[in-house]
Amino acid sequence: MRATVGDQLVQHGRVVGQHDKVGEIVEVLGQEGNPPYRVRFEDGHTGICSPGPDTEIRHTEIQR
């Protein structure tokens, strides 16, 4: 799993009724885009995440 600053990190809900948690990657702490990542979530909370199998990275498009 590789990411860059500005990509979205999505943690999918694990049980029925639990919503996905979406955040923006504000810092990549690993080498070459690898985890861990510092993520700012929609509720304003910032934390360090090492994504698991229930997580996806949504890459931002580079506009030219």
TrEMBL record:
Residues 36-64 are annotated as: Disordered. Residues 1-57 form the DUF1918 domain. Coiled coil: none annotated. Pfam families: DUF1918. SUPFAM superfamilies: Cell growth inhibitor/plasmid maintenance toxic component. Residues 55-64 have a biased composition (Basic and acidic residues). It comes from the Bacteria. This is DUF1918 domain-containing protein. It comes from Streptomyces guryensis.
